[in-house]
């Protein structure tokens, strides 16, 4: 294959001393990497290697590691020479041992883990702990200094990198993309992040595509396509690709130094032009590097007569079965000694000073850069007064409002108040206005670095709203933004947030792991607004109707996840204010956008949201003692249908004592010992009784409520109505009918389960059934819901009598 740089490499870019020291650093990192994978004793080979020095279970990945350390060594040179602020995002999934090796050489690892000392004893512990019970994972997990990206699942490195660079003008994010990762859909979309990076305001991302040719057992696509196609691909993505390829270390060091300097020069030229006051009318062509090096570089060339270096056999552990094959033990020792450890580590086991000095100092070390521990930089948002944005409600159900539009007005104020700090962004797949958050466009635009036409609206270079039709990229941007110390919100249609289920899982695991790492400072919470939800997707049909993301969230640790189902605008505002103040959480808010009845004043909403759950006395009937039935609701549409059912029951069974319980914070239903927001059994029983029927109208799948309450005293009396995977293109009310969540079915359940209504049960059921038949016929004749549904309004009899 041709070498695009062979004719242009300037000789002597590195002095002989620099070349020697960088190569020594690289050899040391490779030695430490192999030691972590294989050794549990004899870390410096002070004696011949024996089987008892080798781990019984060989875990970890060698194939990508030498390339990662090669890049790390050369970034260190650039940082020192130019005094750059750089963090390293390691995309290859199992690059953990290389990242640990480099942070150990920089000294950061020992600073944060004092028992892992820079000597032989510390090296022994370093080796033993890797992928070992009671030790550390094989990825660049949260316990690795400098990491903001674990890489356990492929595809997200580049979107994380750009998220970190937004609003960080002095930061360069070096993002290594493995050629296996480059085959994923999320990564393919993330290349377009350069269309949103403003050189006048943001930092820079330097993508480094590391082509070592193979995945676990197959070639990679980008490593095999012709060079001209590879070049054209990245030109088409809007980058200026720079190529480094070869096998010989000394030549590769020179080539990498040249190209890395070129890339840094180009980045600073772009930024200087943009920040010098000249108007940048077109998006710049940011540089990126394509590094082509052998898989398992510097490892065994062959094992058992089979090609290993430069082939997929070096992907994980090139020498396996050591206990059964003494030849492999000998090969392992020869491999380790090929790095000449006596030239790398002094008699105490510490790296020689010349090697340590190739790394930057202090916070310029990539493993010590505060941006990679974003809680160090995090500052609380300035938030507006809730009362200034309250929906002024009179009696419950006396007015309508668009809940998420009220939230948009609140977010408009958040953006404005934090305009100077520039530490808050809204991301979403082209749904900011669709989800009724459009008031934010009064104070900001959508970020956009491409051509802006005269007829375009709300596009600008400095927008705080970022929209791209890739939920993966939105999620990755926001995660990178939060992990480097800022705040944000992800607005999405409820059904399609499932696209990022796996990314959500990874972030939740990251937060959970960070709780056990004292030096990891808390970061702002990942906040979701899920609107255009299942009950408001009657126009788009079955494909858009899915409330199951809540259930994905509930699988995570209780102290990480929160789920909020505000029933109206003021409760939505209270919840929004709350989640923007939290840290180390994932907050899910589900709220509808159409005009809907408002139930609580702001003062009452604040009290209700602080509790997370409560009795709505104004909607309940009968005396203040024990009810005959509890009607519970969680979600805006379930609340509406519950109150409509209450009103029907008042007419049909006026002596029935009904207690209405509304749930805003879903986690209150769990026992207190399972979730910090959970109710004690005594509190739960006070709300739901110990022996009365509970008819629970719920936003999502009914089993979720049973799962949360199965250990409660009265669980056998809890009967849930929710989404039952029935949907189509129909009317709003018919969606509830199809799933049995409507007012008529709720009355049915009350009639079924309340013994006091036995004498009138059959007659009232017939009335409800007649209403359902009438509804079905009406919508098929008129294409809309019946007037009594469309025009329904809560009637507060007590208020009208007192008036």
UniProtKB/TrEMBL annotation:
InterPro entries: Phosphoketolase, THDP-binding, Transketo_C/PFOR_II, Xul5P/Fru6P_PKetolase, Xul5P/Fru6P_PKetolase_C, Xul5P/Fru6P_PKetolase_CS, Xul5P/Fru6P_PKetolase_N, Xul5P/Fru6P_PKetolase_ThDP_BS. Its cofactor is thiamine diphosphate. Gene3D superfamilies: 3.40.50.920, 3.40.50.970. Its EC number is 4.1.2.-. It comes from the Bacteria. GO terms for molecular function: fructose-6-phosphate phosphoketolase activity; phosphoketolase activity. The keyword Transcription does not apply. Residues 14-376 form the Xylulose 5-phosphate/Fructose 6-phosphate phosphoketolase N-terminal domain. Keywords: Lyase, Thiamine pyrophosphate. Residues 593-794 form the Xylulose 5-phosphate/Fructose 6-phosphate phosphoketolase C-terminal domain. Belongs to the XFP family. PANTHER family: PHOSPHOKETOLASE-RELATED (PTHR31273:SF0). This is Probable phosphoketolase.
């Amino acid at each position: 294959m041709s070498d695009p740089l062979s004719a242009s490499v300037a000789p002597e870019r590195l002095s002989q001393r620099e070349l020697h020291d960088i190569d020594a650093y690289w050899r040391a990192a490779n030695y430490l990497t192999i030691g972590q994978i294989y050794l549990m004793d004899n870390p410096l080979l002070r004696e011949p290697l024996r089987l008892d020095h080798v781990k019984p279970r060989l875990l970890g990945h060698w194939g990508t590691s030498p390339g990662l350390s090669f890049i790390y060594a050369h970034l260190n040179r650039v940082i020192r020479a130019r005094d750059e602020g750089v963090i390293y995002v390691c995309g290859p999934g199992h690059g953990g041992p290389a990242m640990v090796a480099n942070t150990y050489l920089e000294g950061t690892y020992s600073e944060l883990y004092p028992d892992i000392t820079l000597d032989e004893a510390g090296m022994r512990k370093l080796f033993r702990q890797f992928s070992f019970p009671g030790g550390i994972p094989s990825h660049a997990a949260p316990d690795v200094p400098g990491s903001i990206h674990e890489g356990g699942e492929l595809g997200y490195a580049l979107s994380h990198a750009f998220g970190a660079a937004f609003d960080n003008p002095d930061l360069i994010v070096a993002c290594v993309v493995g050629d296996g990762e480059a085959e994923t859909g999320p990564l393919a979309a993330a290349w377009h992040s350069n269309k949103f990076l403003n050189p006048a305001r943001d930092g820079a991302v330097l993508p480094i595509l590391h082509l070592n040719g193979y995945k676990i057992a197959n070639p990679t696509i980008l490593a095999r396509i012709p060079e001209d196609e590879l070049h054209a691909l990245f030109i088409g993505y809007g980058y200026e690709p720079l190529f480094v390829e070869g096998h010989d270390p000394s030549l590769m060091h020179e080539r990498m130094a040249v190209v890395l300097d070129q890339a840094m020069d180009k980045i600073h030229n772009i930024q200087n032009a943009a920040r010098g006051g000249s108007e940048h009318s077109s998006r710049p062509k940011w540089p990126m590097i394509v590094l082509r090096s052998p898989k398992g570089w510097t490892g065994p060339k062959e094992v058992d007569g089979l090609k290993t270096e430069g082939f997929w056999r070096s992907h994980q552990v090139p020498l396996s079965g050591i206990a059964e094959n003494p030849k492999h033990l000998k090969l392992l020792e020869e491999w380790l000694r090929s790095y000449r450890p006596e030239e790398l580590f002094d008699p105490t086991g510490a790296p020689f000073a010349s090697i340590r000095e190739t790394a930057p100092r202090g916070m310029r070390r990539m493993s010590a850069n505060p941006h990679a521990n974003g809680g160090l930089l995090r500052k609380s948002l300035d938030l507006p007064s809730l009362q200034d944005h309250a929906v002024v409600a009179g009696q419950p159900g006396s007015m309508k409002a668009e809940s998420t539009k009220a939230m948009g007005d609140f977010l408009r104020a958040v953006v404005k108040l934090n305009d100077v700090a520039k530490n808050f962004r809204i991301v979403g797949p082209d749904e900011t206005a669709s989800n009724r958050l459009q008031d934010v466009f009064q104070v900001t635009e959508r970020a956009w670095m491409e051509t802006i036409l005269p007829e375009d609206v709300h596009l600008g270079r400095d927008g705080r709203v970022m929209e791209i039709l890739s939920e993966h990229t939105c999620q990755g941007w926001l995660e990178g933004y939060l992990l480097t110390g800022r705040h944000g919100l992800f607005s999405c249609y409820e059904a399609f947030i499932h696209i990022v289920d796996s990314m959500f899982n990874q972030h939740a695991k990251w937060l959970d792991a960070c709780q056990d790492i004292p030096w990891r400072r808390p970061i702002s919470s990942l906040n979701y607004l899920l609107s255009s939800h299942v009950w408001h997707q009657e126009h788009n049909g079955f494909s858009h109707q899915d409330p199951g993301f809540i259930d994905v969230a509930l699988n995570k640790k209780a102290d990480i996840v929160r789920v909020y189902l505000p029933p109206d605008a003021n409760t939505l505002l209270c919840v929004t204010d709350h989640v923007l103040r939290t840290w180390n959480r994932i907050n899910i808010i589900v709220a509808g956008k159409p005009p809907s009845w408002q139930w609580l004043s702001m003062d009452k909403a604040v009290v209700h949201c602080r509790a997370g759950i409560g009795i709505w006395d104004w909607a309940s009937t009968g005396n203040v003692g024990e009810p005959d039935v509890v009607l519970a609701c969680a979600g805006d549409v379930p609340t509406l249908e519950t109150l409509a059912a209450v009103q029907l029951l008042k007419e049909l069974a006026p002596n029935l004592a009904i207690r209405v319980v509304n749930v805003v914070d879903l986690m209150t239903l769990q026992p207190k010992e399972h979730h910090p927001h959970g109710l004690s059994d005594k509190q739960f029983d006070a709300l739901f009784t110990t022996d009365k029927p509970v008819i629970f109208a719920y936003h999502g799948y009914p089993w979720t409520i049973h799962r949360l309450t199965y250990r409660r005293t009265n669980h056998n009396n809890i009967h849930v109505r929710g989404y039952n995977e029935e949907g189509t293109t129909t009317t709003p009310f018919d969606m509830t009918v199809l799933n049995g969540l409507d007012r008529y079915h709720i009355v049915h359940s009350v009639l079924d389960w309340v013994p006091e209504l036995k004498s009138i049960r059959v007659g009232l059921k017939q009335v409800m059934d007649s209403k359902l038949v009438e509804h079905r016929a009406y919508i098929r004749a008129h294409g809309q819901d019946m007037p009594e549904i469309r025009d329904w309004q809560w009637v507060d009899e007590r208020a009208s009598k007192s008036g």
